[in-house]
Amino acid sequence: MTVRTRPPAGGAYELSHLRTLEAQAIHVMREVAAELERPVLLFSGGKDSIVLLRLAEKAFRPGGFPFPVMHVDTGHNFPEVIKFRDRRMAQLGERLVVASVQESIDEGRAVEETGPRASRNRLQTVTLLDALAEHGFDAALGGARRDEERARAKERVFSFRDEFGQWEPKAQRPELWNLYNGRIRRGEHVRIFPISDWTELDVWRYIAAEELELPPIYFAHEREVFRRDGMLYAVSPFVELMDGEAPFTVSVRYRTVGDMAVTGAVESTAATLPAVVAEIAATRVTERGETRADDRVTEAAMEDRKREGYF
Amino acid sequence: MAVANVIPAFDELGNRPMDLLRFATAGSVDDGKSTLIGRLLYDSKSIFEDQLAHVRETSERRGDGYVNLALLTDGLRAEREQGITIDVAYRYFATPRRSFVIADTPGHEDYTRNMVTGASTADLALILVDVRNGVVRQSRRHAVIASLLGIPHIVVCVNKMDLAGFSHDAFDAVVEEFTAFAAKLDVPDVTFIPVSALDGDNVVERSERMPWYEGPPLLYHLEHVHIASDRNLADPRFPVQYVIRPMTDEHHDYRGYAGQVASGVLRVGDPVTVLPAGRRSRVAGIDTVDGSLSEAFAPQSVTVRLEHDLDVSRGDLLCRPDNQPEVTRDVEATVCWMGSAPLKPGARYALKHTTRTVRARIEDVRYRIDVETLKREPDPGELRLNDMGRVHLRTAAPIMVDPYRENRATGAFILVDHASNDTVGAGMVTAVRAEEKGAAHERVGAWTTLLERLDRAAAAGDPVEDAVREALEDMRRRGLLAQ
Description:
The structure holds 2 protein chains of 2 kinds.
Chain A: H1 17-35, E1 39-42, H2 47-60, E2 69-73, H3 79-92, E3 96-100, H4 101-106, H5 123-135, E4 139-141, E5 158-161, E6 189-192, H6 200-210, E7 221-228, E8 231-234, E9 248-254, E10 265-267, H7 273-282, H8 287-291, H9 301-308
Parallel strand pairs in A: 1-2, 1-4, 2-3, 4-6
Antiparallel strand pairs in A: 5-6, 7-8, 7-9, 9-10
Helix pairs in contact in A: 1-2, 6-7
Chain B: H1 10-15, E1 19-27, H2 33-43, H3 49-62, H4 70-73, H5 77-82, E2 89-94, E3 98-106, H6 112-119, E4 124-130, H7 137-148, E5 153-159, H8 168-182, E6 189-194, H9 218-224, E7 237-239, E8 242-244, E9 256-260, E10 265-267, E11 271-275, E12 279-288, E13 291-293, E14 295-297, E15 301-306, E16 317-319, E17 326-337, E18 348-353, E19 356-369, E20 376-378, E21 388-401, H10 408-411, E22 412-416, E23 423-432, H11 438-460, H12 464-477
Helix pairs in contact in B: 11-12
């Protein structure tokens, strides 16, 4: 005999869209922990990976994380972000692995770009792939979202990488329901994106709902900047000024966190979370379009970097 | 272009109970599918200026002669070069009522597997029909796939009404043709909307050029279509995903079963049966980082504690003793084949169902389904890439299944090739052969033991009460009795 519960009438048992996204992301994280042998969670100090850390708490507490956290450190970070990273990791009591781009350069595995437009963005791929191999990681959880960029809009939640770390967008595994396929051979790995279906606004709303701490650069602050290609960059030891680029001080906030050489600031006086979220909700430009020089190289800049093994 | 101001303010977002609707679209550029999506995104202010500038620039460079909104969704180099959609692209937009995920899937037959990927999680399928061409092969194929994948709502946008003089008769002809065909499908809700994607008629705003149409525009329909009751809240199913055992001083004895409620509602105090073993216990607690819950419902991710210390691990399933799925090793299923090598009887694959992965062998390919007419071709011998058909499988260990029609979460599985590790098949359980019923079997065994003890005690002249007490204790220890 089967006894079926009558579904309740009138709105009970409805999950808000944000809690639905959360439940799905937790499911993805637990699948990774259960099906892959040596996963790692990639943490940049940015808002998306801060959300990932919260989701990992939700997935595994009161237990510890079944994976370490790894920061691919370009050496060109905002100092506020590194401070935040260390404080957050101490709070969580979880293990942090730092993979250093500077070390890759010192060992001759990566070659530093030169000139005023030099950046370590592309070098991160070398350091990332080396670190995955060195530690034997077979899965890397990342905070990339499909709404960020058109190549990412096409990527699976469980995204297969061959033994060279390459993504083959034309031959992705079909991904059905929530039945993820994490089977790989030795030397291959999977990139996993638990917040694939979140939008930038969802991330901000979640940060507000969960009262998550962010690095202070996400809020309006006075900073010495200069204008290049229509974007505002911080004056730092990592960028050479070109002729005619004059630094000035203005109130800015950051919308994304990358290294100092490629991440642009937004002029803003929004100093609180609700003020920032209100600005984001009203904005007419995407976060990567507004603040990331690394996507502007060619029409398929992201697809090309992803094929090589980029985040 | 008319721009509706529908981006919600922050405080509105915070206070409103918004839900999530996932819908899949399919079709080629010719149907106006990309134009329609572009129109929805643009009119709901979900296209950003830099994206639009990029599309304009690229359209100009390619000499498209118009702002080609298809470039918004065709994100891969190869797709832009060839002007076709190869893989699913996901797009997002929100109104104050609802958040939307669009799975924009390829319409072409060669990429059916990518269309099935997008359709597998959809609540609604959006099918475009060019009013001048009527219901063509491709529209029928999309409707059949939506039906087989159990999508409960179909919206047929009868497009290019501007090219048919906004004729009521032309619209009715398409409705009639599609309705006749849809009678063969298993889709409870089919809605027809006459639109002009290019001009925006009946997409976001009501069209004044078709006063004879009394229904809502597309966006209004998407915002209001009732999906809450599509979820199965009647049959509690909780596949155990991961066991949480901290072994720290603070949580030394903690043992929690982490998972996502697949369907139904679990409450603290509920009696549960753990399948496939059939052990019984009760829900002692439902934990989350945000505190304990008195109940959890699909699709929440939670951690369940049980009253008894049973051997429960990933791949086991918690359900109610009086409402159980079938525990079986023989499965009849509709399979969509995605492998380049055909599926044939005798072949072995890894089968992943909920959180359980077992080995499976193809016993028989019973028939192939013509995806345009739904006709069955018996004994095809094999299923080829992008074919769909009825298959009989045998698994090496039992799985706990419900028919896909009743429960998408416990009725779906994938097949993975052992050699290549590729996902090669998507299966939907149609019927279940109840050969093994773990729980019932074990209980019958225990009661038989009790009767045997009584028989022995009576024969030896011993007190019967002792035998009963011992047997009941034994059963309680094994979790076969509630308390």
